[in-house]
Amino acid sequence: MKIRIFGDKVLAETAKPVEITPELVKLLDEMVPFMRSARGVGLAAPQIGISGRFFVMDAGDKVRKVINPEIVSFGSNQIEMDEGCLSLPGVHRKVRRPKKINVRYTSETGEVIEEELKNLPARVFQHEFDHLNGTVFTDRLGPIQKKMVSGELERLRKRSEAGETLSADDSYAIRSSESFPDYIKVSSAADSSSESENKE
I want to staple 174 with a disulfide (CB 3.0 to 4.6 A). Which of 49, 87, 89, 94 is the partner? Predict the structure, then answer.
């Protein structure tokens, strides 16, 4: 299993719904320890080269294996915090997202689950859900912020075009060598008072 990096065409595709099969269940089981080895809190199918609508996440409350997800509704409160991504090692910027969402998805056992998610679980779910729609977090930045990361993204794009992928250890090593905090460090501060919160 390898992590695709920014510029890989699969990360820009809208992923297709999937059926639950023994092979899918096995893959989801394998994705969880891989995600943890990379020190991530979420991993979507496109990030490992599969254009399918599923992902795994562990935002500190529990492990979720999410199949064919929907975001049913968004809360009105917005919070802004740093985000990073296993597929964009070394790139971190503040992203504003709804603090609360209501979601529906199918578990690996075939159970349809409906949940209200808040704070970090809501953010991680939205981040991974974006991957299924061909969106990365830098797509949500304003024009000035996009310009500030354009050089970093171009370097990643060239690496992807050269066929480079990352192991879990490679991804973590690159992110932890940067001056910015890695994804898991950012995530652990999700409920800190440094968050800015506004109403729409």
Answer: 89
Query: Coil, helix or strand for 83?
Result: strand
Which residues are marked as active site? 128
Buried b vs exposed e over 2-28: b needs ≥16 C-beta within 10 Å? ebbbbbbebbeeebeebebeeebbebb
Residue among 13, 113, 118, 130 nearest 66 (CA): 113
**Of 171, 185, 122, 179, the residue nearest 6 (C-alpha):** 171
- The tokens of 158 are what? 């060239």
- DSSP-assigned beta bridge partners for residue 71: 103
Give kind and range of the element (H or E) at residue 32: helix 22-37
The residue written with tokens 């969880």 in the block is 32
The 10s digit of each residue's pLDDT in 129-184 is 999 999 999 999 999 999 999 999 999 999 999 999 988 877 766 666 554 434 43
- 102 phi and psi angles, rounded to 5 deg: -110, 130
pLDDT one-digit tens code per residue, 47-105:
999 999 999 999 988 999 999 999 999 999 999 988 989 999 888 889 999 999 999 99
Give the list of residues 6+ apart from residue 103 with CB closer than 8 angstroms, or none: 69, 70, 71, 72, 114, 115, 116, 117, 125
